[in-house]
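FORM 7B: Structural annotation worksheet

SECTION A. Query
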Amino acid sequence: MTAIRLKNAKWNLVAGIVMLILGIVIWFNPLGTMLALAAYIGIGFMLVGAFYVMASKDIKSGWYLLVGVLDLLVGLILIFNLGVTAASLPVILALWCLTIGAVQIIGAWEIKSYGLPWGWSAIMGAAGIVFGLIILAYPMVGAVTISMVTGLYAVMFGILQLAEYYMSRNSYTVLISKR
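SECTION B. Predicted structure
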């Protein structure tokens, strides 16, 4: 048996707050947001990606590291190509939602194997896949709809990150068996 000390709960809290704020900002600026949306989301993705990379070091998770690197890359793409990004934002967001959703579901199984609360990660992964499929099905929907769906996803992501934080904040040490 090996004991690991969990330190990632604080990163769930920070990621949850960042995504809640990001979602609310997107919701209340639907018409003038298409260009700004790429920047808002790019910054948010970069911050959350950095938090996931930091969390991956705390819990030694390759899946958290993968989510963090993907978020950082998408954030950089969004920020440095605002004009092109605005035109292709629905497809970029859909692909991100599908990819991160799949990785979160796989990561949930890893978290489950440690005996930690894993349901929130699985729910968020499934929600990401559903949102990605919705966006791909209706790519020409316009700034308002994309803003609303993106804002909703960000708010849900933030709420579920906060729920995961509150569920795991008292889990400081976990015993795992070496396989």
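SECTION C. Observations
The chain has one domain: 2-169. Strands lie at 2-5, 173-176.

SECTION D. Sign-off
Analyst initials: ____
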